[in-house]
Amino acid sequence: MRSTLFLALASIAAAAPRPQGLDFQEIDAAGTPTIVTPPNDIATDKVKYDTGAAQASASAAVVADPATPATKREVQRRDACASQPAGSGPTSSPDTDSNFQQDPQYDNIAQNAPTPQGYSLSFSDLKTSTEGIGYMGLYTLTSYDTIKCQQLCDAAPACYAFNIYLERDPSVDPADSCPNPPSTVNYKCTLWGTQIDASTATNQGQWRNQFHVVMAGSNGYNKNAPPPATNGFDGPVELGGAINAPSGYIGAKVYPNQGVDPSVCAAACTAQTAYNKRHATNGVYQPCNCMLDLVPFV
After folding, report:
1. Residue 8 forms beta bridges with which residues?
2. For residue 233, how many other CB atoms are within 10 A of its CB?
3. Which long-range contacts (CB under 8 A, 24 or more apart) does 88-96 make?
4. What's the pLDDT band for 96 if we cut at 50, 70, 90?
5. Cβ within 8 Å of residue 102, ≥6 positions away
6. Which of 223, 268, 297 is nearest to 27 (CA)?
7. Where are the alpha helices (DSSP H) in the chain?
8. Radius of gyration of the chain (CA)
């Protein structure tokens, strides 16, 4: 399964009508999106999402579409067996990965967590966490606080979902002299620029030397409110699927590592109109009057 932001541009009418189906060739040509797994070796990973820069990039991509390599988080070198911040979560005994994931205390925490106002519970009490496109940051909390995680999502531009879970982490940085140290348990909150469900919770953990980082009590929540309005356009309106308009289809743009942000699609649509106007034939050109913003899973 792979997902990517797909933007379909359309006018109200077209001289040569043709149905607007999903352009899978366009999706394939964009390449495989970068599947982001939230880091497990840091407490906070603040991802800065610049809406203006995303809009400018979308506008420029109408004329030229250069490949942009994904930026990588700079990894800090640490001393072997250096102490890690103590987690706030309850530990499990015996201290093993399998016992941690079978411990009922974590099930109880997840199952009794309140659903924040304005959000819907998408999945509950999984032993995996979300990974994929649209990653918007990670925060370590002092409790299994769905309200705090919701507040972090509401404060982040274009955040539409969050995943909260307990993570079994090493108490010191594993190295050859301390390959499998005692564990500490952290409450993790990750933010996402697309809606999430059980199918996005594919992160089963990672090995750090001989220490197994695993998750438990993983809950996912989606924001109920639609994305904010975009200047110059009505909506957005949530649809049950992709449209197949009988006429007016202009084309599509694909952004393999972009979360859902209708303002990006609006920027591309506006730039397409300007481009078509500059290249009009006898003063006649096809404007982009509406757009479809979706994340297909193919």
Report:
1. 252, 292
2. 16
3. 88/141, 88/142, 88/143, 88/185, 88/186, 88/187, 89/144, 89/166, 89/184, 89/185, 89/186, 89/187, 90/185, 91/183, 91/184, 91/185, 92/168, 92/183, 92/185, 95/182, 95/183
4. very high
5. none
6. 297
7. 24-29, 51-63, 97-102, 104-111, 146-155, 262-278
8. 22
| Span 223-241, pLDDT tens digits | 998 766 677 777 677 666 6
Pair of tokens at residue 142? 């002092």
On whether the CB atoms of residues 185 and 135 are closer than 8 A, the answer is no
Calpha distance 80→62 (Å, rounded): 49
- Cα separation of 124 and 145, whole Å? 14
Q: How far is CA 172 from CA 78, 165, 284, in A?
A: 10, 21, 67
Q: List the beta bridge partners of residue 218.
A: 126
Query: What is the distance between the alpha carbons of residues 204 and 215, in angstroms, rounded to a whole number?
Result: 7
* Among candidate residues 156, 145, 158, the one with its CA nearest the CA of residue 89: 145
Per-residue confidence band for 15, with pLDDT thresholds at 50, 70 and 90: very low
Contact, 54 vs 261, CB < 8 A? yes
Cα 283 from Cα 85, distance rounded (Å) = 66
Tens digit of each residue's pLDDT (9 = 90 or more) over 26-50? 445 545 556 678 888 888 887 665 5
